[in-house]
Amino acid sequence: MATWTAPLIEIRKYLNNTVMSKLLQSKYDQTAKRKDLESGAWQALESTVEAYNTGDFDMLSEFADYELVGELRRNYTHTMGTKGMEEKGVRFRIADRSSLILTDVLERTRTPEGRWVKEAAEGSSSGVSPQPLLDGPEPERFCFLYVLYDCDLRADIYRKSDKAVLREVVLPRPYAAAFRRGPLPLSLPAGSLEADWELMAARVASHRFAQAATRAWSFGSRNPGPVLASQARGMAAQAEPSIDASDVSDFVLEKKGIRVRGTPMYLDMQATTPVDPRVTDAMIPYFTELYGNPHSRTHFLGWEAEDAVEKARAQVAGLIGADPKEIVFTSGATESNNLAIKGVAGFYRDRKRHIVTTQTEHKCVLDSSRYLQNRGFEVTYLPVGPSGLVSVQALADALRPDTALVSVMAVNNEIGTVQPLAEIGALCRQRKVFFHTDAAQAVGKLPLDVDAMKIDLLSISGHKLYGPKGVGALYVRRRPRVRLEAQISGGGQERGLRSGTLPTPLIVGLGKACEIAGEEMEADSRHIQGLARRLYDGITSQLEGVVLNGDEQARYWGNVNLSFAYVEGESLLMGLKDVAVSSGSACTSASLEPSYVLRALGVEEDMAHTSIRFGLGRFTTAAEVDAAVEATVRHVNKLREMSPLWEMVQEGVDIKSIQWSQH
């Protein structure tokens, strides 16, 4: 790979020019005052100029992302190599605007005013004056042109395979960037919890910086991209979170009678997750530029959309060890569960009319089962043990010759218990019964292999794994084949199983989220387990009468469900107004009834009313956990001070032995 040489001196002299500096500063000031949509572009430009002027070439390296440049070069080469074939009827594809950007770069370097940039980049400047650039209407354009062109010359990685590029260039860069940048406010030595978090943040930061710079350079659009709230939330890993509400901002959030200064800390990852900024970036072009219908087979935009959908299908399949042809896109896990349960029951209803599930399933699974009961099917609801685990032996005893389907969720959404999927799958395959699992809370968080676990149907939700809401998928095994009765009539999309036009941007987002989850699952797991232990130990070391709901060993630690004796869960939720947590499933959290999941575990009603679910995720920080611990301990103590029952317990009175008077 080529190294940075003489052009640095030339371009640094050029950018140090007084006229250029004043021009850039003036335009940036004007833009900042207007606060229009171009501010993000100017910020990226200012950072680039600062990097050149100060000689901070490491910062420039962050701007000139090798991965991006390599993609530009490969796409450009592909474009030039296939252009002549277009007339022969070969379908001509351009993966994204990157090839058009690079084409524009190379075209401009052939013009007189672009010669200086080209020659400076190649280190062969022959005294060509940069004055035309300074006198032009948009001199900043050539700053970005230079960066892209020069880095294209330096990188020269388009001849290498994608795997070699990934191994040699892309993967080491976040690590190098993290250590070069130095410790963050919350970081500890390499190998620590916060170090893993920092390296993950570096990967996100590197990606976002390159994307923002490219958008800023392609100034033809007045909207440089998603430099909005999504970027701020996605980049939370780069800054110490504000946990003192008074220091957050003057903005006051007023919701349902609760006044909160600033934004509450989000610890409700089982309800939904924030969209990863890399997912947002992948989706944006399919809203604004490549907006074709993926089912349109007669023009370029339709082809591009179809390619994007099929790429996402492969990304989803790769995460669970499936074949892309086995993935059916839906609107989310609820639809996937309905299609799986009602679809199998409907297709095999003449021969098999028995379904087996558990008492702790998600409400959509339980309601689908009741729907079938009302239509003549028999449903067995298996009990679970005190930790939420289903007995494989009890399941075996419940199977009958006419059993069509077993549905057991992978990870419980309220208590985090992980069911023994491999054992259940082996039993169902042996007894020739289809096995469905609602894996909305497991996909992207725990390793899943549908072949090894002998899973026949698996439901996926996009917004549970840092993807967009409104999209999901259902894995449907092809060998041995699972037949389903479609629940939606229409155009016959998705092999006739799910009619309706596919939402390309959402599907692209789901695919990207699955790809990222596969790459970062191990780091995410270490990060989340460390935070969960920090949360649990922090609370239990300061409070007594705290119970962890669910199995302590077979659990997903991103879900920490705790019951606090002699404290009303609703009162504690109101007290924790600076921390976004819940008392159970978001789908039923409006109900004041105790959780049916906890009741199925045998938890007494008074303790079931005291549970709080803390949800931890990829972007949760140690500072947020520490703040949540402090707030929880403080409010539990406050509520217990007002509880006469707690006072009696402290005095040694056995509450259960008291005979309360009846009125």
TrEMBL record:
PROSITE patterns: AA_TRANSFER_CLASS_5 (PS00595). InterPro entries: Aminotrans_V_dom, Aminotrans_V_PyrdxlP_BS, Cys_deSase_IscS, PyrdxlP-dep_Trfase, PyrdxlP-dep_Trfase_major, PyrdxlP-dep_Trfase_small. Its cofactor is pyridoxal 5'-phosphate. Keywords: Iron, Iron-sulfur, Metal-binding, Pyridoxal phosphate, Transferase. Residues 265-627 form the Aminotransferase class V domain. GO terms for biological process: [2Fe-2S] cluster assembly. One of its GO terms (molecular function) is iron-sulfur cluster binding. It is an enzyme of class 2 (transferase). Pfam families: Aminotran_5. Its EC number is 2.8.1.7. One of its GO terms (cellular component) is L-cysteine desulfurase complex. Belongs to the class-V pyridoxal-phosphate-dependent aminotransferase family. NifS/IscS subfamily. HAMAP family: Cys_desulf_IscS. PANTHER family: CYSTEINE DESULFURASE, CYSTEINE DESULFURYLASE FAMILY MEMBER. NCBIfam families: IscS, PRK14012.1. This is cysteine desulfurase. It comes from Auxenochlorella protothecoides (Green microalga).
